[in-house]
Every structure is written in structure tokens, then in C-alpha cells.
Description:
The chain is α/β, with parallel strands linked by helices. The chain folds into 2 domains: 3-28 and 63-154, Rossmann fold (3-Layer(aba) Sandwich), CATH 3.40.50.10440; 157-282, Hypothetical Protein Tm841, Chain: A,domain 3, CATH 3.30.1180.10. Helices cover 39% and strands 24% of the residues. It contains 10 helices and 13 strands. It has helices at residues 15-18, 45-54, 66-73, 92-107, 122-136, 141-154, 165-169, 207-225, 242-253, 268-274; strands at residues 3-8, 23-26, 29-32, 35-38, 60-62, 79-84, 111-116, 157-160, 186-192, 198-205, 233-238, 260-265, 279-282. A 6-stranded mixed β-sheet has the order 10-9-8-13-11-12, with helices on both faces. Helix 1 links the parallel strand 1 (3-8) and strand 2 (23-26). Helix 5 packs antiparallel against helix 6 (141-154). The longest helix has 19 residues, at 207-225. The mean pLDDT is 94.
Amino acid sequence: MKYKIVIDSCGDLTSELKNDERIESIPLELQVGEYRTWDDESFDQADFLKRVAACSQCPKSSCPSPERYMESYVTNAPDVYVITLSSNLSGSYNSAVLGKNLYHEKHGEKNIHVIDSCSASIGQTQIALKIMELAEEGKGFEEIVKLAESFRDAQDTYFVLDNLETLRKNGRLSNVKAVVASTLSIKPIMGATDEGTIVQLGQSVGMKKALQKMTDMIVKKIMTEIEAPEKARIMISHCNCPERAEHTKQLLEERVKVKEILIVDTAGISSMYANDGGVIVTV
């Protein structure tokens, strides 16, 4: 292999990427009460969501160890790109960097670069796809790192959730000053700051109107901030609500012409935070 991409399991992958030998997903561990499971191919979303709904305790996650990351860097590929969920949401980034240091101490020099996605879920996946495109164009390691980080900086993540309790109880909404109660049927439209923390962008009454308002924001970004919309990729990730994901895709297709719009299911970590019914979009 000319290169390898290492991504923590918060990155929601397409079926093609899951089977791509150039990509390795490093699983985080999930815990609901006394129940523990790995966020890997064995993850059972339906069972997990059922356990979350039935448990009074907030679900938790544990990031991969530095040693686990170091193992993933042992490869014949000369260039290794690592993409973690936001360092403001998890210790995965720090663990990946420590793993890089351990690798250098044990094995010597190698091109390894760890990217803090400042996002999660498909925000990480978008960066992986960009790196693959740049590598296939024949660009070198240093140039790919620079362009991938510029791509990261220009990317935006949006999401609408049915239930914010997991994020709230795990302290991930500390920068959100006013989040209304879901019992009022008011759905906040959330996003990520440049630093990778969560911010409220707006709100609407009911999920349908919230998805519409979110797509309005996305369309505005595409039309005003992206030079060549026809080259842009939109990704949609959903937690157990394919009809909402398809509806969001249709709303976008009616208003913008882009390279492609991909829909994926949330894996374990994204399912934990998005909760049943959540929709995430990145562009």
C-alpha cells in the first residue's frame, strides 16, 4: 500500500470503506450500566439503543489506548494518516498522538500525521475520502497533510437530534447556553465550532421543520462559501431513521447540484451521541 488511513470508530464509514484494505477503524468501547461492548463489526445498534432506553445511567465511551494506535501504525505503507473525533469531545486524539510517539520510540521514523477532525461521525469520513482523493492524484505526504487540514477547516457539521440527554449528561453541551426541552417538540439545530465543540445554530418546532431549517443552512453554505458546488460531497448519517436521511437528501437534491450525496448508518459511538432518530450532515 502507498498509504494507510487510521480512523477511530466514531467515523461512520460506507460499506466500501469498511472493506478497503487501506483503512483501519480503531474501536472505542461503549458502556451502558454494567454492559460493555466494542464499537466494531460486532456492534448491534438495535440492542444497544434498547439498552440505552432501558438504563437510568448515561451511556459512556472509552477511547483506544496509545498502544492500540501504535499497533495500527505498524504497516508497510510509508505514509499513515490518522483521523480522530474532536479532541474537545474525546481523548482519542491525544491517545493517537501518544501512540505516534510510542511508535517512533520503538520503530524509528515514519510519516505519521494525526488530524483532529474538530468534528465526529461523517465529518471524519469526509476527511478520509479527501485524503484518498489527494493520494490517488499522486500528491506527497506533506502536501496532503496541508490540504487535508485546510479541507477540515472549511468543513461544517450540522445535526438534529430527537434526544439530547446523552450529550447533556456527558457534558458535551457545556458551551450551549440555551437548549430547550424536547418535551416541547422544539428541536435545536446543532453544529460544530471551529474548535470542535457543539453549538446551537437555531431551532424549530418539530423534526420535519428542523430538518428543513438545517437544509436551508447547508444550501446557504454551499451557494455562498463553496467555489465549485458540483465538486462538493454531502454526507448524511442517521441513527435508526433511514426515512429522515432520505428526506434530508431529497430536500438538498431539490436545491443544489453537488458531486454526490452519501447516506450511512451511525456506528456505535455516533449512535450513542445521536441517539435514536438523530440525523447528521457534513459538507
